Amino acid sequence: MVENLVLVKPSIEYLDEICSYRNEVMQNGGQFNGDSGLRKFDNIEAWIRCCKLMENKETVPNSNWVENEQFMMVRKNEKYILGMINFRHYLNDYLAQFGGHIGYGVRPFERRKGYATQMLKLCLKECEKRKLEKVLITCAVENEASRKTIIACGGVFDKTVNENGEILERYFIYL
Asked: Residue 64 — very low, low, confident or very high, per pLDDT cuts 50/70/90?
């Protein structure tokens, strides 16, 4: 049920489930999105620590990155991760052109069930808490599912851009 969906931050209590999510994505094409580089971490506890460091400007581990929050969408009182979404609090030059404020991905066996739209709507509430007036989101031109999600959440097409040969569509959502 939609009303039972919540965003939670990665924590040790979700350790086994994060491993399960990572393995499922790896076994089904390895298309990771909105997960703060989870694919690069064999050690999930290190990924959880990295996510926590990313929440504060002073502790962001790479000077090319920006402060952000990593969320996982679950049903209340359950640990099964339906998807992951990353909210960047502000944009550097690269994100302002190509990456946007939000990246998200849905667990492979949970796709086409409307979870991406629900997850994005929940994340937009987090954006409102930070007093953002508009949010930039991009998607690959061939990613119809992501485009539909963005539009369903109020996305207004801006333009296409070329990022090293990949054509991206840019959308703004006004809050």
From this structure: confident
Long-range contact pairs involving 17-23 (C-beta distance under 8 Å, separation at least 24): 17/79, 17/80, 17/81, 18/44, 18/47, 18/48, 18/72, 18/81, 19/44, 20/81, 21/72, 21/81, 21/84, 21/107
Q: What is the pLDDT of residues 134-172, one digit of tens each?
A: 999 999 999 999 999 999 999 999 999 999 999 999 999
Is a pLDDT exceeding 80 seen at residue 122?
Answer: yes
Q: Using CA of residue 108, residue 109, residue 110, residue 113, what is the dihedral sign?
A: positive
The number of distinct structural domains making up the chain is 1
User: Model pTM?
Assistant: 0.95
| Close Cβ partners of 103 (under 8 Å, ≥ 6 residues apart) | 33, 34, 85, 86
CATH code of 28's domain: 3.40.630.30
